Amino acid sequence: MPLDQFRAALRDGRLAIHAALTTVMVWLAVILVLPSDTFSTSKSFAYMATMGSEPAWAMVFWVTACLGLVGLLTPSRAMRLGSVLVLATMHGVVAGCLALSNPATTGTGTYAVLAALGYYLAWRRTDEGV
What we know:
The protein has helices at about 5-35, 40, 45-50, 55-75, 75-100, 105-130. By secondary structure, it is mainly alpha-helical.
């Protein structure tokens, strides 16, 4: 595989990570906006419920997803980096909240891995030069 094709494949992988982080934020926002009483029916969200209501968290996730989308669509490297850092941090916040509520849930590890992927992506983007 020529070097240019390899670089293009790496870039596509990085965009896929960015898109996945953004999509998960959209999913969280949608789940919390629906009238399902997620916080009251799931022990895993108990800590998040003490910090804010479902609509408040949905708005935070929606704004984070919008920043992620801006980062995906903009040609600015600084905006891409900033957007990935915000996404990774929010995934870390969710992992922390889930761990404080119910450390035995698989969501804790899942969101921690997503946060780690986001920080890895940010590191790779700074390595390329912002």
